[in-house]
Amino acid sequence: MLVKDIMQTDVVTISPLATIRGAMQAMRSNNVRALVVERKDQHDAYGLITYATILRTIVAEEGDIDLINVYDVCTKPVITVHAEMHVKHVARLMVRQNFRRVVVLRDSALEGIVARNDIVTPILEMAEH
């Protein structure tokens, strides 16, 4: 099974210049726990912002979420994989490096995202055979 078979293609993105409050609103309205942070230009890397990142930021900055940009706190660069990669290799990477999500790129363009939850069922099915 390949990454393209399990990845989520309806990826919610956010501008790096958006505020933390904007990121929270985007997560809530799209019912997601992470957003891919858009590149500033073609030579930039994608980033990732999660609920955990936002919570750490709120605690560290004592709740001042309107003055902090997503770019300042996001994980960047994100770990990326190719859609044609085998799921077992991505699972191994995620477990060994303790990643919860990886971004899927094709020719430097955003194609999807894979979270641990997306990978558990296929890995269990492969183990049964």
Task: Describe the model.
It is a single chain. With 129 residues, this protein is α/β, with parallel strands linked by helices. It is 41% helix and 20% strand. Helix 2 links the parallel strand 1 and strand 2. Helix 5 packs across helix 6. The two termini are 13 Å apart.
The main sheet comes to: 3 strands, mixed
The secondary-structure element order is: HEHEEHHEHEEH
Quick one: how many beta strands? 6
> Spans of 5+ residues with little confidence (pLDDT < 50)?
none
Estimate the strand proportion.
Answer: 15-25%
Fraction of residues in H or I helices: 40-55%
Strand order of the largest sheet: 1-2-3
Rg is 15 Å
Overall pLDDT: 92
Large-scale geometry = globular
Note the gap between the termini. 13 Å
What does the secondary structure layout of this molecule look like, with pairings?
Blueprint: H1 3-6, E1 13-14, H2 20-30, E2 34-37, E3 47-50, H3 51-60, H4 70-73, E4 80-82, H5 87-97, E5 101-106, E6 109-115, H6 116-128
Parallel strand pairs: 1-2, 4-5
Antiparallel strand pairs: 2-3, 5-6
Helix pairs in contact: 5-6
Feature tags:
globular; alpha/beta; three-stranded mixed beta sheet; single chain; 129 residues; 6 strands; 6 helices
Task: Briefly summarize what is shown.
By secondary structure, the chain is α/β, with parallel strands linked by helices. The chain has six helices and six strands, in the order αβαββααβαββα.
